[in-house]
Amino acid sequence: MAQPSYRTIVRYYWMQMRKHRGYFAMVFVMYAIGVVFAGLITPLLYRHIIDVLAASPDPLQAWPTLVRLLIYVGATMIIYNAAYRLGDFAIVRFESKTMKDLMDFAFTGLTRHSYRFFTNSFAGSLVTKVKRFVRSFEDAFDAISFVFWMTVVRISGVIIVLFITAPFLAILFLGWTVLYILFAWYLTKKKIPLDLAESTADSRVTGRLADVITNVLNLKMFSSRTREISDFVDITEDERKARHRAWTFGNKINIIQAVFFALLEFSSMAIALYMWRNGLISAGTVVLILIYLIAMFESLWDIGKAMGRVSQKFADASELVEILETPIDIQDIADPETINTGSGEIIFDHVSFRYGKKTNRVFADFSLHISAGQRIGLVGSSGAGKSTITKLLLRFADVEKGKILIDGQNIAGVRQDDLRSKIAYVPQDPILFHRTLYENIAYGKPNASKEEILEAAKKAHAHEFISKFPQGYETLVGERGIKLSGGERQRVAIARAMLKNAPILILDEATSSLDSVSEKYIQEALHELMKNRTTIVIAHRLSTIQGLDRIVVLEHGKIVEDGTHTELMKEKGVYANFWQHQTASFIK
């Protein structure tokens, strides 16, 4: 996908900025008033003071005029300080509110993407991109309001005043300013690819760092710290090179700008002194020009640096904007149907599916009918299509051809959230939120009562180990539930599924991490949970599914056997062969 343009980035920012137009306008109005009084009117008063001092040999005669001018100076100080402080108040309110809205907007937009998108992305890198998107707004808006806007107001005022007092200098200033800004913008555009490369390299470092920290157990178990350090050093070296190129180019821009400023400063002062020598301007006007020159040079120098800073911040923001601009691969239709409240009949009707255009089909004209309330097990070698069936049923991916029906209704025609509300899913390796045990169980039914949560935990045999923690249900489980054992995490996930009480249940070998004693109790709880529910069990250990109503054996995306455990054992086919290998391995 093409890199988002500045216009696109600004459009995303403006969507949230416009909600706070009042504060937005107040920022620019107050800062404009402050600049006019501090940067334009006050120097004019100083010019008058100097002219009075130069023209009046008698201090007593000049004193009343000087007092009046001093009062004016005091009044302007009060006005511009009040304006600046009101502007500061407005920008704090505006930026804090807008940044909150941008964070909410980014979170909403990011979570709209499909499960497949997140499996192909580094979690740490995504977090960094969201934070950068929000922080970049703050930095860019600060540059626009404090540098660009104030400079525009100051330069406009200076040129107007100079057109009145020294027209030739005004024309020189105006021409030079336009030339400088155009040249600075040209150099900034040249720097944009370098800023993008730096941001990309930084994201790679963040992603690798998060990946290693997440997999620190593997790092320790495989004694791979030295190897990971070596790889990390290579990645940070790429980041250093990208940053060095961007910063070096920025220094070259500064050198060119310094030459521009030196030439203008020298020529402007020479012209001003020449005009004073010939009696065209007063000494006060020379001082006024000097004050304006210093202010303009500082402002224009800041503009050059601010252009580079805004370019860098927009490069940072572009990474998330690119994600927000990426089409959502799994979308709800414009006018979705209301989902049926049936009993859970599932039909895969001549389904074809592949994970990518250049990959082989997982299913080609695949059909499967699961009656309401039926408990089936899916068996097959790795890659046979077991997990793909559950992903398609949950709409983590969409079919190429055919359709999937639940209670006679095409799942592509209902909202994804409505569809998934009818399905409880217990994965083989549950991942929990870094929240309390109570919150993790309640995730299956946010409005559940405490009694319902405790009952679900007891049925899943999670209450026993939870009660042993000093904080009980208020115990934080750590990132991804790392403080719990695999079996404990699985029991929490089972409790969550029990609480959800959905008509369709998917179990991805939900007892694989349990000890034999716990497994006995959990199997009893799961059998109770399966009653009157359509249940799909992905089986890795065949002993866990032999009591199900039906077992479907898959090979290369096709159903090769279908029946009960007893029936399939009598056929002495693929299933019987799997069973024989597992029991033989167990006996050995």
From TrEMBL:
InterPro entries: AAA+_ATPase (IPR003593), ABC1_TM_dom (IPR011527), ABC1_TM_sf (IPR036640), ABC_transporter-like_ATP-bd (IPR003439), ABC_transporter-like_CS (IPR017871), P-loop_NTPase (IPR027417), Type_1_exporter (IPR039421). Residues 346-581 form the ABC transporter domain. Residues 32-312 form the ABC transmembrane type-1 domain. It is a multi-pass membrane protein. Keywords: ATP-binding, Membrane, Nucleotide-binding, Transmembrane, Transmembrane helix, Transport. Its main location: membrane. It is found in: Cell membrane. The chain crosses the membrane at residues 21-46, 66-84, 140-162, 168-187, 253-274, 280-301. This is ABC transporter ATP-binding protein. It comes from Candidatus Yanofskybacteria bacterium RIFCSPLOWO2_01_FULL_49_25. The lineage of its organism: Bacteria, Candidatus Yanofskyibacteriota.
